[in-house]
Amino acid sequence: MANVDTLEAMERTQGRFETEPNQKPPIGFVLVKLASRCNINCTYCYWFRDADVYNRPSLLTLEAEDAFCRRLEQHIGEFGLNRFLLIFHGGEPLLFPKRRFVALQEKLLGIEERTGCRIDRAVCTNAILVDQEWARLLKRYDVGVSVSIDGPPEIHDRHRVDFKGNGTIADTLRGLENLREEGIEPGLISVCNPATDPEQVLAYAVEKLGIGRFDILPPDATHADNPPPIADYFIRLFDVWYDRYASKGVRIRTLDAMIHGLVGNFSVSDTIGLGPTDTVTLMPDGALEPLDVLRIAGHGSTKTNMSVFKNAIQDVQDDPRWSEAFQASLHLCETCKSCEFLDSCGGGHVAHRWSNERRFDNPSVYCDSWKRIFEHVWRRISPTLTIEYGGPRMSTAPARE
Ligand code: SF4
User: 378 by DSSP, 3-state: which?
Assistant: First the structure.
């Protein structure tokens, strides 16, 4: 099994539908909610916006874990899969007890051995609980790691706070250090604060923390939230990256996805770009639900009647809520269908299209921003495009100053 972090892992789940975009393929990826609670209290967190989470067990129950492992083995066998992806998620997934984490990994190794299917594993964490023992376990079981850091302390600590309102960057950096001492180089995930300068985030991530591959995401929001525009932030982010960091090999997944889309390739991200949303979320009580971010649509918005106790993993595709999200990710609203950035934007993140009146039948709540951002990115990259004569693909080259 190869060590992949969540960024790398998610990229593999994108662009798998080039030939049959309307076909529902065998599920190949599950977001496993090891914990439904968190050890900190980020101001923008999407997870707790749906209070239904408090009706669920705080940790993945042992019964749900066992039932899921049985379903997973059946699923792999039934579809003859040779690769599957699990991302451990929360709340904060490392609230899950270490001894249970070890037991779960051993069960997964057993499934790999019996089926011959490679089960890639990754965890998305705030790293605060990553002590040396956690780092050793993640290393031992080859679990890729992504750490949430929003930037330097003055940016990170504005929103990523504990329950007393104190910043958490110092504890996160301690966890990062423990990971690195074990030889784990995590990916980094940031949520942008449009009121700040992205140059600070880039400088901090690349020069201070030495991280060369990460993602910066817009805050999750629906049309009911009326979020501030993100255009100026992402335009500046693109310019700083393109002019200063791209040639050094620094990669930012959302920017990669924009360029992929603009030159006619499939997106590598679910934030931006055309492509189906077929994520399955395993809830701590064994329920099988759609993509967890859809919880921002409101109370019980991801609730299904599916559970590992009575359903096969593939059955989730028959659930109306899962199916609605999947179909919404493929069938865009009329405004998006006639948009010049349709291929590259794809209507943005499916959760960001939600309104109570029209459900997913809207452009992204960040539509005006995306248009400005795509126009700008295209203006910057188009003079550098090379069309290979006789070949179907186009490629970009870094700008020369
Ligand atoms: S820019 Fe707006 S209209 Fe165009 S595809 Fe994106 S969300 Fe839809």
Answer: helix
Q: Establish whether residue 129 lines the binding site of ligand 1, counting it when its CB lies within 6 angstroms of any ligand atom.
A: no
Residue 142 vs residue 391, higher pLDDT:
142
Three-class SS string for 147-189?
Answer: EECCCCHHHHHHHCECCCCCECHHHHHHHHHHHHHCCCCCEEE
CB atoms within 10 A of CB 210: 9
* Centre of ligand 1 from the C-alpha of residue 401, in Å: 31
348 lines ligand 1 (CB under 6 A): yes
Residue 372 DSSP SS3: helix
363 lines ligand 1 (CB under 6 A): yes
CA–CA–CA angle 395, 396, 401 (5° rounding) = 155
What is the b/e burial string over 156-179, where b = at least 16 CB atoms within 10 angstroms of the residue's CB?
Answer: bbebbbbeeeebbbebbbebbebb
List for the chain the helix, strand, coil content (%; round to 5): 45, 15, 45
CA 227 / ligand 1 centre spacing (Å):
16
Cα of 353 from ligand 1 centre, angstroms: 10
CA dihedral sign of residues 173, 174, 179, 182: positive
Structure tokens at 346: 């794809």
Could you name the CATH architecture of 6-395? Answer: Alpha-Beta Barrel (3.20)
Q: How many Å lie between the centroid of ligand 1 and the Cα of residue 137?
A: 43
- Predicted TM-score of the model (pTM): 0.87
Binding site membership of 293 for ligand 1 (Cβ less than 6 Å): no
- The 10s digit of each residue's pLDDT in 318-368 is 999 899 988 888 889 999 999 999 988 999 999 999 999 999 999 999 999
Q: What integer pLDDT is reported at residue 274 of this predicted model?
A: 78
**Domain ranges for the chain:** 6-395
